[in-house]
Amino acid sequence: MAKKNISVFFCQNCGNETSKWSGQCPACGAWNTLVEEVVDKATVKTRAKVSDVKPTKLIDVTTSNEMRISTNIEEFDRVLGGGIVPGSMVLVGGDPGIGKSTLLLQTCQKLCNAGTNVMYVSGEESLQQIKIRADRIGTFNDKLDLFCETNLDTIKAVVEREKPTVLIIDSIQTMYNETVGSAPGSVSQVRESTGVLMEIAKGIGIAVFIVGHVTKEGTVAGPRVLEHMVDTVLYFEGDRHASYRILRGVKNRFGSTNEIGVFEMRDTGLEQVKNPSSVMLDGRPDNATGSIVTCSMEGTRPILVEIQSLVSKTAFEIPRRMATGCDYNRVNLLVAVLERMRDVKANKSCGIFLGRSDIYVNIAGGIRINEPAVDLAIALAIYTSEKDIAVDPGVIVFGEIGLTGEVRSVSMAEQRVTEAKKLGFNKAIIPASNLPSVKSIKGIDIVGVSNIKEAVDAISR
Ligand code: TYD
Ligand code: MG
């Protein structure tokens, strides 16, 4: 067959492929994300004869006893679901400069110290640059092989010869495959490179870590296009100007996805944060209004965070609403619930008027929380700021709020209250329907509330 190169258009946001250019991606709706790439369509793979292919019975499938390699970094192991699975592929995504290379180099150090052979392939930094970083982190033994290369065919050949147990590719956007015509970092290169790495991982059972930069604009293909190809997707997030970093699992074929690992960036690399609650509550103001502590579950782990709110008279035609660390629309909804608050017992309305107020809500510590269990704390933070009530610093609040102002039960109430007690809180305001699950906890005053009015009364006391 004559070779024929065909132009196709890839969306740099979602990876969708179309044959014609258009301003908006027909799949994800993003604007100006379609980029032309030349694809070699002539390589048609030879298929096995259909009559030779047979499905396997589930009971006949044997699993090799899944052995995990510990990274010896507890926070990292937790997010991975208990350690590295041989032959798996892990994508570590995040903004440039957040600390992905640092985290993986530290993992190399720990793995090598435990006797594992590791190969670190860098397409971004020179050997000297890696050495300088390694010197900040600490001492390394001779188990780590460094390799500065971007050609995947070379990498594949070297890996197959050296057979390391763990392979690290930093980063996928710099890798290129000669058979693909487009530039490194384009969707087809990133996809094809991941395919080659997948062959290496599954073929010889090497665990592969891929670093992927997340970019806002479509100049380099984001790691989103390869999320479905890899086994595990981890995102490293946090404010680059703050020192705390959160490693969050968003997909994991070998474990739970809700787990997070918390790290602090020091001048000697990343340090694990074993007790994030006390870190998140660090520097909490005394006798402040509009400050409420709540407990959010991140996977199996309770984390206490402080919700702050500031309500002030607006100087604008339309009042400003701002939410940092939580969902903006959720805040608007809670404001509406507070405005329509009802005293159910007296059967009368007791809402507060917020239509002429600017409202700012912030979760201290730079963490993002999307769990509805923090609703009650957000609502009470807004209420106490508006009413100028200084809340007792020993109170913790959690609960989901429904549209009629009812406080609904949340999962794992017991763990939340226990964590609060451990950190010295003496009163918990929780959904009334969660009371039975926490009645065995002693030494902390527990108040059950069934609607927002009762919660407001409990906090104002
Ligand atoms: P890096 O791992 O290079 O980020 P990424 O690979 O995600 O792009 O981390 C970069 C930042 O971390 C850089 O701004 C310097 C800082 N850093 C420290 O503060 N302490 C350290 O010990 C190291 C190695 C880096
Ligand atoms: Mg890097």
TrEMBL record:
SMART domains found in the cross-reference section: AAA
Location of the region described as Lon-protease-like in the Swiss-Prot/TrEMBL record: 358-461
Domain spans labelled RecA family profile: 65-214
Taxonomic superkingdom: Bacteria
Keywords annotated in UniProt: ATP-binding, DNA damage, DNA repair, DNA-binding, Hydrolase, Metal-binding, Nucleotide-binding, Stress response, Zinc, Zinc-finger
InterPro entries: AAA+_ATPase (IPR003593), DNA_repair_RadA (IPR004504), P-loop_NTPase (IPR027417), RecA_ATP-bd (IPR020588), Ribosomal_Su5_D2-typ_SF (IPR020568), Ribsml_uS5_D2-typ_fold_subgr (IPR014721), Rubredoxin_2 (IPR041166)
Motif (RadA KNRFG motif) on chain: 251-255
One Pfam short name: AAA_25
Family: Belongs to the RecA family. RadA subfamily.
Role of this protein: Plays a role in repairing double-strand DNA breaks, probably involving stabilizing or processing branched DNA or blocked replication forks.
NCBIfam families the record matches: sms
Protein name: DNA repair protein RadA
Lineage: Bacteria, Bacillati, Bacillota, Clostridia, Lachnospirales
Gene: radA
